Amino acid sequence: HSRRTAARDAAYFIPHIKPHFHILDIGCGPGTISADLAALVPQGRVTCVEIAESALNAARDPFSSRSVTNADYVVGDVTTRLPFEDDSFDAVHLHMVIMHLPCDPIIALREIRRVLKEGGVVGCKEMVMSTTRWFPVDKRLDVWEKGITGAILESGGSPDMGMGLKYAALTAGFEDHQVKCAASPWCFSDTEAVQFFGDSCAERFKDGSELRERTVKGGHATADEVDDFIQACHDWKEKKGAWFGVMNGELLAWK
């Protein structure tokens, strides 16, 4: 996740940001996108939100290493009530967050709308897990989608949330003329990207990992199938023309 950047992963959102904006970045993760956004608002700030202090500690690292100081770090939960007043932020950003939430996505978007200023913009990007494709085709690689989809569903999340963003935004109170939805792919096809993705997928399912445990205990794949998946990832990296793609939904909504 620390490989993500605003230029690549929030390109749809950046044109709507102004230098004075106060941006709320919900589910900021390792903070790489957050720090990029902070650099775009030199007269403003970015407030990073995570559900636990331990997660916020990781988010501080890119700010510190880049000497970016216009940031705040707050523990909060968008599924209940964020610790901010109404109409507090010029923009709210979320990247692969709503799909993992253990609640109706509409609840989260209503809370986001509450803390957004009049005229402010929400940018939200969510995956459509069912669009996952690998080439060359290898059935052993299906464990990736099965394991992650199963874990998300067990947590009450929505693995295909990218398709439902417009519906959720309209139901949460945004008007039709205030909502714009599009889509963009993640694609790993050049040599460096293929090596990175194959290694990272294998790493996420290694012995002792949370995702491996949830995949096996949830009955989404056997331990042997997970082991076969790890080997398939390493095999895939070396194949001629290796390619991976998945579609993401993108939401822009104004209050």
TrEMBL record:
Pfam families: Methyltransf_25. Keywords: Methyltransferase, Transferase. It comes from the Eukaryota. Belongs to the methyltransferase superfamily. LaeA methyltransferase family. PANTHER family: 2-METHOXY-6-POLYPRENYL-1,4-BENZOQUINOL METHYLASE, MITOCHONDRIAL, METHYLTRANSFERASE. It comes from Triangularia verruculosa. This is S-adenosyl-L-methionine-dependent methyltransferase. Residues 23-120 form the Methyltransferase domain. GO terms for molecular function: methyltransferase activity. One of its GO terms (biological process) is methylation.
